[in-house]
């Protein structure tokens, strides 16, 4: 039965890139995407296979901390559902709250935690772990690179429509008239930031595989993945590539020259340096830097085009002329006609947190400096804080305002903080901080247990650290199962190897 579990885990994790294809996620089936439903079924099957092994039931009965955690999670979920149901806000639709969506989200949020536990006791073989990571790297990276070269890739900065890129990577060096969002490529996949975080996460493992199995196939896989991360045109993809290459280089030298528990390999070192040098040479031409230079002048151009100074005077005059309801109606009409001059994000002001419901909030935003108005992540956080504080429910800080509301108002691109608004402080600790706890557990044993100081375990720790950093920095990670299930598989494999090192039964010694 353990063999069946290992085989199922192998294929279940390996198919995640296929479930991340753009068109499978749109339109949703009964508000739930088909990939999410398949993932729930997949984890359910893994649970059945796992507990079909008698020893696993006996072990769980002795693990009181796991049982306590499960009981606490169930109790939290019940309290969360009751708390978010009693919500009042300025939006008459309650910001699209749905109890069904909320329950499904709670189930979905538990899936990676289950995969961590199952993988950690699955005795998953290292060589098969390598093959899964190689397959994920190849499927994502080759798709991005090939679709970019033949100009049929979807652009990285569109998720509401399937819009293709305008030119391939060669235009980066020869033409400058393309906007950044016409060149950044995500292949045929859904969310570029999520994909960037996945590739950032698996890069140290791919480099470890290259070190252990130095051959042409792995050189090509790592090189193509590096190119794909640049083509994505995201900060996590581009900066993450350089960061991962440099940090792994330092880690390799630390293990081989200082700890001396890893055999030094000149050919691996030269290859790694060559990939780093090539990546650094291409980096300045990437869409990421074009985006930064473009955004700096956006607000000023819009202000000049719409004659912002004249509008400011007109607005002040109108607000003084009218009082009460007439003033509110005047303000609404002004915002509707001129929001673009103030560089307000149209979907935020017109839909997600409509000026019709809270015009005086948007008046306050229009009076802020251009840099603040263009900082959409900070603006989204500001809106969520306003919604949470406007509600009279004192339990919001503990249980959140619900995932469905948070997602409909302003899906915050900063994980952990996004979960705080949707699930509250308790939900954030139970459902997301737990990943940091697992990583911290691994770091602790790496520090105190000599047998844990292997290059493999160091690579797994880097992998977990990279994706959690990406989650906090750019968001769009912890809400996407395509990322969290692979992360859970890696963290589970980390715990397995930590356990082996404690009993001197470790799979890879170097």
Word description of this protein:
Helices cover 71% and strands 0% of the residues. With 510 residues, it is mainly α. The chain folds into 3 domains: 2-122 and 414-502, no CATH class; 128-285, no CATH class; 294-403, no CATH class. It is globular, with a radius of gyration of 25 Å.
Brief synopsis:
With 510 residues, this protein is an all-alpha fold. It has helices at residues 2-14, 16-19, 34-51, 54-62, 64-85, 99-120, 126-149, 171-174, 192-212, 216-231, 235-259, 266-282, 287-306, 308-321, 324-338, 346-352, 359-366, 370-374, 376-390, 396-399, 403-409, 417-448, 455-474, 481-502. α1 packs parallel to α7 and α22 (417-448) packs antiparallel against α23 (455-474).
Mean of the pLDDT scores? 90
Helix content: over 70%
- How many domains? 3
Contiguous helical run count: 24
Query: The biggest beta sheet, please?
Result: none
How many DSSP-defined strands? 0
The rounded distance between the terminal residues' Cα atoms is: 30 Å
How many whole angstroms does the radius of gyration measure? 25 Å
The H/E string reads: HHHHHHHHHHHHHHHHHHHHHHHH
The assigned structural class equals mainly alpha
Dominant shape: globular
Bin the strand percentage. Answer: under 5%
Low-confidence stretches: 506-510
